């Protein structure tokens, strides 16, 4: 038996032990772990944003987990991982798991304060919070012309609308450090004038 086969056997044995223990002591946690494997969309619960409410309305199935569940679950790069604001409380192990997930092609979507608590920790050379929190404010936004056909913006702004973006009190402006690798999809001149950074929605590989 090779070392790899021994390791695989040990992992299988330990996973069965963990499953039996969780079945007895924490049946709800076990149910979450099983559902994660079957779902294409995983949402990390937040305090200030709740993307799951949107998915409920459009009847898209998902599994809702807590930050500490990231330590236990296995992420599949074919899944979508959504982290609601604030994104705080994720362990180093959880963060590394997310980073590996993204490296392998997994799609990560984050909102607001997760810029500081998740993205800045995982990709410090790419972007950061500029440390100028917004007020409870509304700013005019526009789609960057070369991004108009981007599939992530489909249905976001219709017709001749003059779109307004609501900034809850203490939203985090995005400072881009690696401009060659980050694509700005939606920007705001008002955001730049008031808070020092124009990006509203960004995308990067």
Q: Could you walk me through the main structural features you see in this protein, from its secondary elements to its overall organization?
A:
The protein is α/β, with parallel strands linked by helices and 205 residues long. The protein has a domain at 128-205. It has helices spanning 3-25, 27-38, 51-57, 92-103, 114-122, 189-195; strands spanning 41-44, 63-65, 80-83, 107-110, 127-129, 137-140, 142-143, 164-167, 174-176, 182-187, 199-204. A four-stranded parallel beta sheet has the order 2-1-3-4, with helices on one face. Strand 1 (41-44), helix 3 (51-57) and strand 2 (63-65) form a beta-alpha-beta unit. The longest helix has 23 residues, at 3-25. The chain is globular. The protein starts with a helix and ends with a strand. The mean pLDDT is 84.
Characteristic key phrases:
single chain; 205 residues; alpha/beta; 4-stranded parallel beta sheet; 3-stranded antiparallel beta sheet; 34% helix
Radius of gyration: 20 Å
Uncertain spans, ≥5 residues at pLDDT below 50? none
- Give me the number of helical elements: 6
How many β-strand stretches? 11
Q: Report the major sheet.
A: 4 strands, parallel
Query: What is the helix/strand order?
Result: HHEHEEHEHEEEEEEHE
Q: What is the first-to-last residue Cα distance?
A: 40 Å
Helix content, binned percent: 25-40%
The fraction of residues assigned to DSSP E strands is 15-25%
Arithmetic mean of pLDDT: 84
**Overall shape:** globular
Walk across the major sheet and give the strand order. Answer: 2-1-3-4
Structural class designation: alpha/beta
